[in-house]
Design a protein that fits this description.
The protein has about 425 residues and is an alpha+beta fold. The protein has 2 domains: about 220 residues, FAD/NAD(P)-binding domain (3-Layer(bba) Sandwich); about 90 residues, D-Amino Acid Oxidase, subunit A, domain 2 (D-Amino Acid Oxidase, Chain A, domain 2, 2-Layer Sandwich), CATH 3.30.9. Helix content is about 35%, strand content about 25%. The chain contains 12 helices and 22 strands. Strands 1, 2, 8, 9, 10, 11, 20 and 21 form an 8-stranded mixed sheet that branches. α2 runs parallel beside α9 and α9 runs antiparallel to α10. The longest helix is centred in the C-terminal third of the chain and has 29 residues. Bound molecules: flavin-adenine dinucleotide. The site of flavin-adenine dinucleotide (FAD) has 33 residues, from α2, β3, β9, β13 and α9.
Length: about 425
């Protein structure tokens, strides 16, 4: 359990301490949601001395929320986490580098190999338990004196004014207001802030469920990840820090959810083995399964007067390709960079042109990932023969056309040169370890 320093609401709201840039605001930035993305923004801003309120409805004194999942964090995301000082903690608690990704389509013998050597990168990405990432970020939050944590506190509503945003907070039956220059919605896929701001979001479900489990196998994974496409849905196999264990995300039609979840461990291993392939040998054990419904959604805009959306509050995608949190971390880094520059220039952090720059910076990257992930899922999750030919052609092109593969790899690794958000993000004061 994390011994978080959580100020009581009344004392935390005794904010007339003259610490702010402007007495118009109690804090410069209020972030709603202390998930991976909200915490990343809070630390990046806190490290630069910006006064932040981080508001979370869950009770953070209860420690990290149980989460069986491990996420694929791209190299670009690892660099963001390194700059905010969370990566060394994560490395010490366990991250599994991915050296090669193998992509295959059903029974086809065609295999696309993405190798770190191709881009001379230390790794294509890292598989990290969500609990480790979250724990490291919370530790960093606690180390930032300019970040005040409000938990368990609910945001009840807000109203935008020309020179500030007024946020209504509720805590154990009492209500308080907080004045901030900018309110950031990092409150996840079902964002209330997005709804209250009247921002519409377009999206759909896939009629699929993602079943997550950690499997023990006969042969070592050798830091290889597999993305196997099958007509019923994709299967991702991700190496963990244990050489004989991989985390699987198995997508199946929603109609099969109850049957697959009810299987015994032995039956589950038998059911997944034909899709798993022989590379890792026999399947020996499976951890208890959890199950998630994939959704695709994209907010029509990320901004409103004195409000910005980041992470799942702005967009959600199918877990295929492991891009959701990566996009969110890039949102957080981009917004932090702009806010830090604004502070240095003595500018209003909630200025409309700043928010417009944030949206212009992030929307094209997110739209591209959402489009690509959706296309891959639609193209590969069916047995219509013209699409079968098309996707085999796509895989063949990826393997043979010289420029296509590095371009795809750079996008997936979050290191495209067009991503401007890293360079200006200030470094944490700790010496940076090498990414391995
Ligand atoms: C099966 C599966 C596998 C995935 N694998 C990957 C992967 O490999 N790589 C990857 O990059 N992504 C992956 N993702 C996506 C990734 O998990 C999400 O994109 C990411 O967790 C979103 O983080 P977030 O901080 O934006 O939102 P959340 O994690 O949802 O956090 C939102 C926070 O806001 C709080 N909150 C909500 N409302 C309020 C309120 N009114 N007041 C105060 N607090 C509030 C919530 O309690 C919560 O703590 C996967 C997703 C799934 C389902």
């Amino acid at each position: 359990m994390l011994p978080l320093h959580i100020p009581a609401l009344s004392s935390a709201l005794d904010l007339d301490q003259g610490k702010c840039q402007s007495d118009r605001w109690d804090v410069e930035v209020a972030i709603v949601g202390a998930g991976m993305v909200g915490c990343t923004l809070a630390v990046a801003l806190g490290q630069a001395g910006i006064r932040v309120a981080l508001i979370e409805s869950r009770d953070l004194s209860q420690g990290v929320r149980p989460d069986e999942r491990a996420s694929a964090l791209a190299l670009g995301t690892a660099r963001i986490l390194q700059r905010i000082g969370a990566w060394p903690l994560m490395q010490s608690w366990g991250v599994a580098p991915v050296h090669r990704i193998q992509i295959s389509d059903g029974e086809s013998l065609l295999r696309v190999q993405l190798c770190r050597e191709r881009l001379q990168a230390p790794a294509l990405g890292y598989i990290v338990e969500n609990q480790i990432t979250q724990k490291a970020l919370w530790q960093r939050v606690r180390e930032c004196p300019s970040v005040q944590v409000f938990s368990p506190v609910q945001v009840q509503g807000f109203s935008a004014h020309p020179d500030h945003m007024q946020v209504e907070l509720a805590w154990q039956g009492s209500r308080q207001t907080l004045r901030t220059a900018l309110l950031v919605g990092a409150d996840g896929a079902r964002s209330r802030l997005r709804e209250w701001a009247g921002i519409r979001s377009s999206g759909w479900g896939y009629g699929q469920v993602c079943i997550v489990s950690t499997l023990t196998h006969e042969y070592p994974h050798a830091q290889v990840a597999y993305e196997r496409f099958h007509a019923r849905g994709p299967l991702a196999i991700l190496p963990t820090t244990h050489p004989y264990r991989s985390c699987v995300v198995w997508t199946v039609p929603q109609t099969e959810q109850d049957r697959v979840m009810a299987l015994s461990e032995v039956e589950f291993l038998g059911a997944i083995y034909p899709f798993f392939g022989a590379q890792l040998g026999a399947l020996l054990a499976a951890s208890p399964r959890t199950c998630y419904e994939p959704q695709r959604s994209h907010a029509h805009t990320y901004i409103a007067p004195r409000l910005a959306l980041i992470g799942d509050a702005a967009h959600t995608t199918h877990p295929l390709g492991g891009q959701g949190a990566n996009m969110g971390m890039r949102d957080a880094a981009a917004l932090a960079t702009l806010l830090i520059e604004a502070k240095a220039a003595g500018r209003d952090p909630g200025a409309l042109d700043l928010l417009q720059t944030y949206e212009r910076c992030r929307r094209p990257d997110n739209a591209l990932v959402l489009f690509g992930t959706n296309l891959a899922n639609r193209l590969f999750s069916n047995q219509v023969w013209p699409l079968l030919i098309l996707r085999r052609l796509a895989l063949w092109s990826l393997e043979t056309l010289p420029l296509l593969k590095p371009a795809l790899m750079r996008q997936a690794m979050g290191i495209r040169s067009q991503h401007p958000q890293l360079q200006a993000l200030p470094l944490c004061k700790e010496p940076l370890p090498t990414l391995v």
